[in-house]
Give the backbone structure.
Amino acid sequence: MSFTPVLRSEALKVLSLRSLCGILPALLAVTTAFSALAGVSDTSDPDFDPLFMALSGVAPGQIAAIAFGAMVVSSEFHGNGIRLSLAAVPRRGRWFAAKLVVIAVPVLVTGLLTAAAALFAARTGLGSAADGLTAGQQVRGVVGLAVYLTLMSLLAAGLAALFRSGTATLSTLIPFVLIVSFVIGDVAGGATDFLPDKAGQVVIHQTHDGHLGPWTGLAVTALWAAAALLAGARRLRRGDA
């Protein structure tokens, strides 16, 4: 079977599951809402970063992107549905690649819409405090946030294929991105700059003082995602369906 019909069938699977179809609208709503709330915060702090403040809704919003990536893959392992999928598409690499496309494309598109909406909502509240943002910085923030969300969803997809469980993936990844960076930050120092969440989110800061820049930070997140995907593909290729 060629790649196109495999891709079409995987897209239909996503569209047929209401729980999956509701996750990406939630990503847009949550991220925009929290960014709008951040837009009415105190701007007198000398370390105030208007770009990060405008896009800070990514902290809770990224949970939806992670959940989407994990659930699209892990749904195959419920009731041994993976056996039917691989019977129809014996070439496991082709099947997994189609899965990743139907994860990455919707998340990227939703991420662009979400970042633009969040920036607009927050800037309305920030008013003159955001006047220092250049057009280039805003474009970088919007595009970078969309890419970051896409990479995090792919990281989750790779872990879901490795663990063969959405619950295990979410139980591992969500506490990691929400807690670990803050818990070990004072102990590990600059090493936390290379964690997938902290590295990727440099792109939504107006200025950056750590080891990584906006695009090198995203490259680090991409390496994390690639490692998870390779591990997941290896488990899929060598494990029993």
